[in-house]
Amino acid sequence: MPKTQPIRAARGVRDILPAERAAFAVAEHAAHESARRYGYQEVELPIIEPVELIERGVGRDSDVAGKELYRLEPHADGDAEAASRLVLRPEATASMVRAYFQGGLNQGPQPVRLFTVGQMFRHDKPQHLRYRQFVQFDVEVIGNPSPAYDVEVIELTWGWLEAMGIGQISLELNSIGDANCRPQYLDALREYYRPLRDRLHPECQRRVEENPLRLFDCKEPQCQPFKAAAPRITDHLCAPCAAAFEEVKSLLDAAGLEYRLNPYLVRGLDYYTRTVFEYQHESLGGAQNSLGGGGRYDGLAADLGYPDTPGVGFAGGVDRVAHMLQSELGAVTPPPAAEVLVLPMGEGLDRAAAGVGRACRGVRSTAVDYSARSLGAKMRAADKSGARWAAIMNADEAERRVVQLRDLVSGDQREVAWDQLPEALA
Ligand code: HAM
Fold first, then answer.
1. Predicted pLDDT of residue 24
2. Which of 43, 136, 284 to mutate to test the pocket of ligand 1 (most atoms within 8 A of CB)?
3. Could you tell me the pLDDT band of residue 288, with boundaries at 50, 70 and 90?
4. What pLDDT, in 10s, does the model give residues 182-195?
5. How far is it, in rounded angstroms, from Cα 224 to Cα 234?
6. What CA–CA distances, in Å, run from 321 to 56, 232, 262, 307, 326?
7. 323 CB less than 6 Å from ligand 1?
């Protein structure tokens, strides 16, 4: 009897086993290809960041910073860093802007186009397709306010989904104004909601004064009836924001990208200005229907203590995309662990079998079955593994430096000398 309970993974995190990893690899490869095609360069950013970066970036009142942050305990050696507490990053945009300045990318040609694929952490309630550790494909254009970049990011990321065969995506679009026009709009929103406060659920009652835009994020049934008559931000945009929104729509039309205007799309992070967008797919269902989203964040750099610098970007959920590729589209067949299995039959053949494996690996992925099972058992395992060839060898054949090379698909078998194997398998 084992002495302790078997140890399992932490709640809300999971192992990506080979079958699913193959779908991740497809999504990540397509991400790299799409980003490169548009001239975006890859960066790698730390997974731990100072808590201030996240709180000032995505906003203390957002769920992501307010409720879902994984905070690290200060290190026992009490170095200076312990004072500035560290968290596991819940998203990459604030880090990307930090890296842009810290690495001096703001000094070179502008704008700077960057992307990264990496793990994010949010202590959310675990549910289907909502994990506490997940992977995002993140793209950012920093250093230019033109709406043409908003549309470039949308086109790139739409292309990413399309390249993987994910169709019927719905692109939701909105503008949430900027520091110039949003305060007046928020006043109008508060005025509308104040008389309704008692009929909202407790969280939303608090939002009326503190963060009224978040009222649109609410999924509680009791709050839904009041949305339709609420003032719409798009009716309250200042002239420059309205012009930028018109330009985004007209450039999307020119690119042939269909979108749905959604006046309630506000996104869950506080740094957005002007354009916000999201890709939804009904097959994902419920609250987890977003494959990715993004928008413009012209005030973020200044919020982080850097010179005022505009930016726009997107993050896609790689776990959700991989799930779609695997279960909805059946588009990904994981490759076999090895294309060739070397099956030594009898004792004392390990050294010879390892040599045969080495010879085959020049042209094909190869594994050696060193177990002491019968030929029948080894052949059944080889068939199950999805390997294409078995290279079978007994002591006599090892002596003669040959194997019986069996094609596991056609069943054909022939004797092949070791030094002819690369040719036979090519
Ligand atoms: P976000 O909407 O918070 O945006 O996340 C983007 C995508 O990440 C979501 O649409 C979803 O597919 C995936 N995602 C988020 N949380 C989870 C989770 N718990 N489990 C699985 N997938 C998840 C951002 O993070 C912004 N940084 C996007 C951005 C970039 N805006 C400007 N630049």
1. 96
2. 136
3. low
4. 999 999 999 999 99
5. 19
6. 29, 32, 23, 36, 9
7. no
303 ligand 1 Cβ < 6 A: no
Question: Is the shortest distance between the CB of 313 and ligand 1 below 6 Å?
Answer: yes
pLDDT digits (tens, 9 = 90+) for 137-171: 999 999 999 999 999 999 999 999 999 999 888 99
What average pLDDT does the segment 377-402 reach? 96
What is the rounded average pLDDT for all residues in the chain?
93
- Of the spans 78-87, 104-113, 201-210, 264-273, which averages the highest pLDDT? 104-113
pLDDT of amino acid 377: 96
Q: Is the pTM higher than 0.90?
A: yes
Q: 149 CB less than 6 Å from ligand 1? A: no
Query: How far, in Å, from the CA of 362 to the mean position of ligand 1?
Result: 41
Asked whether 140 lines ligand 1 (CB < 6 A), one says: yes
Atom 8, ligand 1: which residue's CA is nearest?
A: 317
